[in-house]
Amino acid sequence: MDSPPITGTKSSSEKIGFLQKMAYGSGMMSYVVMVRGVNQFANPIFNDCMGVDPRLVSWVLGGSRLWDAVTDPMMGNITDNTRSRWGRRRPWIALGAMLSAITFAAIWLFPAGLSEMGYFLWFLCTSLVFFLAFTVFSVPYMALGMEMSPDYNERTAVVAYRTVISQVGAFLISGIYWFISLDRFDDMAHGMRYAGIIAAVLIFSAGIVPALFAREHQSVLDRQKKGKRVAKVSLVKSFMETIRELPFQILIGITVLMLIGLMLVGHLGYYVTVYHIFGGVKGESLGTLMAVGGISSQVCTMLFVPVLAKVSSQLGKRETLLVAMVLAIIGSGLKWVCFTPDNPWLSIIPGIVMSGGLAATWTLINAMIPDIVDLDELKTGERREGMYSAVYSWVFKLGVSLALVVSGYVLTWSGFNVDLGTDQSPQAIFYMRLFFTLIPVVSISLAFLLLLVYPLKESRVREIQAELKARVNAEEEEENKEKTND
């Protein structure tokens, strides 16, 4: 068995250069534009502009992500078993970037004059094709990040770079709110046609960079250069061995709880801003506030993530993740008082506080998964970065899909009716605000409690890495003896 060298301290071979991290991280710009672009603009465009029932919109969002989740393990197994001169991941990343760009733009290029069912079917069909392309890109991209270094803290650094650079994509998403609200467009749907094309160019341009310039750890490349091939593992066996690890199960539970809290009410931020703060009036002031609020949150993320990544090298990932969750809980609670028509600009504050905590949360969770891959290798002798990436992505997207389906009903349960326009009832406004604030506070708090029992602390990870290192050394000594005897 060929395994990457694993040590308790960071050697020069385990360090990743600045340009390598930047090249890898650039792919996350594409990832963010794709995911946030669909999630954040589906309701404003297809419900608020085109009149599609929010429950239908939520079924498209949830169903397409469920389809995305179903294809993830298959893609993980395919990329784990791929053999090429360019490695296992990068050919798929390049193909996925191209297909994702084309299909993302197609979502917003619907013909004018369709019926409600016509817009629904357009959104459904284009979303299903788009998220298939997204799977081709996202699964090998996430797996590549796990293979760039075996070092405990360097793994966190890779994900931290990825998270910080992703904010460039988030800047574009925030800017879209301003762009599509300009008076030069007939409505936001008209502006989104052009914004979708611009976003598609970024998706391909940023997504192709890791395929061209990012690299696996040298041990992975050496293995392929020597012509050594790893035996292919069946999809079912690989999947079952992946999900049996208790630390991985806990991370999955935390992820699902976080998603329930965030995705159930994520779209309500738009409705609370429009109908509570601005009384239903849409214009450049609304677009400017949402753009500035988004950009402020992204700047906060870019500042918070490197700090918390540094803190994690001192405290450990688990302890730092607990701090990040507390920030997210506080930020969500602030939404009740800060989303107010008396001072619209206060609505920026909760996003600033939450974004730092949430960005660090996803950064550290993703940095923990390679540690579990080490534990799995110690038990099974197999390294399954692709399958772990796919299964986690599968659970992530399954949680997203279910939350998105319910989210349309949450909006309906609040009493919101798009046909009433600016005449929404005070009760509907109250319940939108209540759901928007309370659901994330409760779910993130439950995730916090679950993290308290996570067993794979830094000391244990170091022990696992030392055992793997000893195993590799023993195998090399055995190989040398056999060569000497021959």
Automatic annotation (TrEMBL):
Organism field: Thalassobacterium maritimum
UniProt keyword annotation of Transmembrane present: yes
One Pfam family from the record: MFS_2
Keyword Hydrolase: no
Stretches that traverse the bilayer: 92-114, 120-144, 156-180, 192-214, 246-266, 286-309, 321-339, 345-369, 390-410, 430-454
Keywords attached to this entry: Membrane, Transmembrane, Transmembrane helix
Listed name of the protein: MFS transporter
Family: Belongs to the sodium:galactoside symporter (TC 2.A.2) family.
